[in-house]
Amino acid sequence: MTFPLSYLLFFLTLISGTLLAISSPSWFGAWIGLELNILSFIPLITISMNPYLSEAALKYFLIQALASTLIIMSSCLILLLPPMSTSLILMALLLKLGAAPFHFWFPQIMEGLSWPQTIPLMTIQKFAPMFLISYLMTSPVSTQIIVLSGSLSALVGALGGLNMMKLRKIMAFSSINHMSWMLIAVSINDTMWLMYFSFYTLISSSIAILFHSLSAFHLSDLLNLNCSKSLYNLTLPLSLLSLGGLPPFTGFVPKWIMIQILILNQMIFPLSILLLSALITLYFYLRILIPFILLMSPSLSYNTKYLPSTSFSFFLPFIIFFNFMGLLLPFPFISL
Predict the structure, then answer these.
(1) Model pLDDT for residues 255-314, shown as the tens digit of each residue
(2) What is the pTM of this model?
(3) What is the CA radius of gyration of the chain?
(4) Structure confidence by residue, pLDDT tens digits, 160-178
């Protein structure tokens, strides 16, 4: 999929809206930044006259408009009813994130997008709401709401992806599950969730690039695919294990640090839910991994497909190095 040069302007305004939202001293300025972010992302979705893209853009606009309405209404009540106003703003930001129990829209919109469009939806669009949530961590009630939402997101993200056969929905529920780790990290300190968000952004973006290069949208597309090089056969499954947090891949590093911090803060119950959900997510990653490796044989040359995408060969060394950093350089991680 090729993008017009004019879309660079919308991407720059999208970044500008995010920066405006997180740097604004008032909720009105943050609301303006979020609105600029929404209005910049919708043209990036509707890149062509496609009914699926139009439906996804309409759903995204309605959900985000509802959340923005709640934010501006709650900010008006912040002087009259401060606790209630803070809780409403927090729920509106959770709706913008797609965190449980407001996750219903996220997998449906992911299903209607192409792989390059899912990357900002899974990463950049979550940055400003997460920052604004971290600003609200000033009372025990807000912390309890975030911990509850994080625990629900862990269960929803793990159980929702079990019976999924569509790769974009699997990545959507995986994003909801990783959102739970970030929400729990927000309740601790800002450094933790920024560290986890950075790792998640790089790993999930690399997997979306791999899926886009393989033109894979369904689990059967991976099972029917047969590449001529075994390196291609191993990169995607092992990258999925890195996203799942299996040691010693790179995705295990932020989870390892989070486990230690949660134990030090005596948050045993949320940690138990996060670890249980991580095991379930590893199960549906392994469901992709095992047939992907067993059914791919280089000897089946009559069914071999060559990868035409040049971006795949360009990004492949960086994807391998980052996702397999724990295998290549395990000693720095042992001392963490």
Answers:
(1) 999 999 999 999 999 999 999 999 999 888 888 777 666 665 554 444 444 444 444 456
(2) 0.89
(3) 20
(4) 988 888 999 999 999 999 9
Residue type, 53: L
Q: At what angle do helices 51-76 and 82-97 cross, to 10 degrees?
A: 170
- With a CB cutoff of 8 Å and minimum separation 6, the contacts of 199 are 250, 251, 253, 254
